[in-house]
Amino acid sequence: MANDSAVKTGLAMWLCVLFACLLLEFCGAAPHAHINRLALYPDKSAWCEAKDITQIVGHTGCTPRSIQNRACLGQCFSYSVPNTFPQSTESLVHCDSCMPAQTQWEVVTLDCAGSDEAPRVDKLVERILHCSCQSCSKESSQEGALLQLYPSEGALETPSQPDAAHTQHAHAHLDVQAPEAG
Prior knowledge:
By secondary structure, the chain is an alpha+beta fold. 15% of the residues lie in helices and 40% in strands. It has one domain: Cystine Knot Cytokines, subunit B (Ribbon), CATH 2.10.90. Strands 3, 4, 5, 6 and 7 form a five-stranded antiparallel sheet that branches. A hairpin with an 8-residue loop joins strand 4 and strand 5. The protein is elongated.
């Protein structure tokens, strides 16, 4: 009976060593790479996509507006392997989260009929174009990103005075492209 217990303990330790070696291989080859599959769960894969939503944009004293946008939804891999003290190897921790990979900033104009100070308020809204599994430690989509500001189609090249009959608003857009992982 004691021999059977020793075999099970040895097998469990061997599996832990194998798992640690596989994780080291993943981490050593590409420390910031997106992991799509894990050796322990070959039938599972990470997924992340942009899902259509209706977003309400509001401001105190203004009429809220509904706009079409996207939200990131998915399941990305994370893991943590127990450490030792003193530490014999690097900490084996990996965390990916489903978050925006490409966004576009757009001005949404709200009508504020009851306000004498500002009959309209412009709100800057982040529109999500694409999502992907990215490092959880990523602070924001603007960090190290390529920013591009451009006027939308039909926007005037020079600012004009507000016109009460003017119902269309010229929007400025700001594209944000996250840097490639790796």
